Amino acid sequence: MHCAEFVTKLTDFKTVIGTSSCNSAVQALNLLANIVFALLNSVKRDLKLPDIIIQLNQLYSRIKAGTTFKNRTSLQTSKGTMRKSRLKDYIAGILIGASSIFSPASNVAVAQETKQEASIDDLTQSEVDRLMLRESVDDILKEEYDSGRIQKVVYNSSSGRTNFRELVYQEHLPASQRKPVIMLVADAIYREWLKKDGYVANKGDAIAVKKLAQKYDKFKIVLYDPTVDPEFKGIGEGKAKLGKELKGESVSSTPFIAMYWVDNQNHDFQKVYSFKGGPVGPSANKGVLELLEILNKEIKSKYSDSF
């Protein structure tokens, strides 16, 4: 992002927050604006920036942790309602842009840092951080839903079953014509019976699958939210009773990633790999890159039509 682009974005930011009934959010946003304006003024005066960069990073951490907006799911502005997920993404973009543009490091140093930060297939830690700010798995995968790249398992009350087998096993097609499938079993939205750290794992797996969907265009990508099955029951403390369909796939909890394709030895279309769990704890965001690398290696080593 160039300086002029950043100034334009900042101006838009000041306009967006406008006036709001959510005082705590507005205070936090105004604080952000003041810090960034101080940053701009310091640049104009050719002053040193370490303290301001530190303030930016601290505020970014607060926003990422969800403490500033924990009691609101949206912000009412003069231009309408902005969902928390979009608001956090917007703020994160400004903060990351400010830090990258006006850091005391030279352009060469910034380029080197960016190169070091890039991981598998150009997914960067910054991109993971931005996506983690979104509220839910559904928010993270929104673009893929809208484009049809990711399909959801749904329950049909008339037939009394889901479309899981049609989407994943594609039983209406000969085995040789079935597409390879990556299925993510995850809670599409956060629910009260879930543990918050456990839901972070759901979001982390969703980011990894989002990246796989972008790379492996020959694969079908499916999301199975276990709550669509009428047999599902949330017990509490992060535990739930899953339906028979998922139990039949050896799924006992979320998140869970499974891969399906025609096995080279017996020529049957079947589940060939599964990964249970996801990144949690303070290093959860970094764990997303590690998970993605694991999944990539599995596909490249086991799927015959290598990419």
Describe this structure in words.
The protein is α+β, with helices and mostly antiparallel strands and 307 residues long. The protein has two domains: 115 residues; 166 residues, Glutaredoxin, CATH 3.40.30. Helices cover 48% and strands 15% of the residues. The protein has twelve helices and eleven strands. The strands form four sheets. A five-stranded mixed sheet has the order 3-7-6-10-11. A hairpin with a 2-residue loop joins strand 8 and strand 9. Helix 1 runs antiparallel to helix 2, helix 2 runs antiparallel to helix 3 and helix 6 packs across helix 12. The longest helix has 22 residues.
Overall average residue pLDDT: 76
Helix content: 40-55%
Distance between the termini: 32 Å
**CATH homologous superfamily annotation of the largest domain:** Glutaredoxin
Write a concise synopsis of the structure shown.
This protein has 12 helices and 11 strands. The protein has 307 residues and is an alpha+beta fold.
